[in-house]
């Protein structure tokens, strides 16, 4: 059951990242000069919340699986879960700040700065997705 939940959340995170990328195509740096962000981009935030909650679930499940794999004590596993979820929270706050700066209307932004913002915005969740999948695969291969 944990595997089904893990991979379901993993694919939800991947799909929501792809949806956010698709929605971002009319914005600079993907289209130059790109449309100016308006109040319609508020739809990004619920999808971002779903993505980060699904990522939190995958992180939680992978940390629990690794804790069992390493035979950690319950207290150590709880501390590890809290540490990883706190780091995930910090990355989520950074992600919100990056999209705010990326979509803000400032005359001094260039296509290169928008590319950096977009790279960080999509790179952080992809980093987590590409990190937890091999970790979970290693644990499941170990158990089988």
Percent of residues in beta strands: under 5%
Low-confidence stretches: none
Mean pLDDT: 85
Q: How would you describe the oligomerization state of the chains in this entry?
A: single chain
Indicate the overall shape.
elongated
Q: How large is the count of helical segments? A: 4
Number of strands: 0
Order of helices and strands: HHHH
- Rg from alpha-carbon coordinates: 17 Å
Q: State the end-to-end distance.
A: 15 Å
Summary, kept brief:
This protein is mostly helical and 144 residues long.
Structure write-up:
This protein is mainly α and 144 residues long. It has one domain. It is 78% helix and 0% strand. It has 4 helices and no strands. It has helices at 2-24, 44-69, 74-103, 111-143. α2 runs parallel beside α4 (111-143). The protein is elongated and about 55 Å long. The chain starts with a helix and ends with a helix. The mean pLDDT is 85.
Task: Fill in the keyword field for this structure.
144 residues, mainly alpha, 78% helix, 0% strand, elongated
Describe the protein's topology:
Blueprint: H1 2-24, H2 44-69, H3 74-103, H4 111-143
């Amino acid at each position: 059951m944990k595997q089904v939940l893990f991979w379901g959340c993993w694919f939800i995170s991947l799909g929501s990242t792809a949806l956010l990328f698709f929605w971002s195509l009319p914005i600079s740096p993907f289209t130059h000069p790109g449309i100016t962000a308006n109040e319609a981009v508020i739809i990004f935030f619920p999808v971002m919340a779903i993505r980060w909650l699904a990522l939190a679930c995958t992180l939680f499940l992978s940390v629990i699986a690794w804790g069992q794999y390493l035979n950690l004590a319950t207290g150590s596993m709880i501390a590890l879960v809290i540490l990883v979820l706190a780091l995930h929270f910090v990355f989520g706050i950074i992600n919100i700040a990056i999209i705010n700066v990326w979509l803000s209307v400032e005359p001094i932004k260039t296509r290169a700065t928008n590319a950096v913002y977009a790279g960080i915005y999509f790179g952080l969740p992809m980093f987590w997705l590409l990190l937890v999948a091999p970790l979970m695969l290693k644990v499941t291969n170990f158990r089988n």
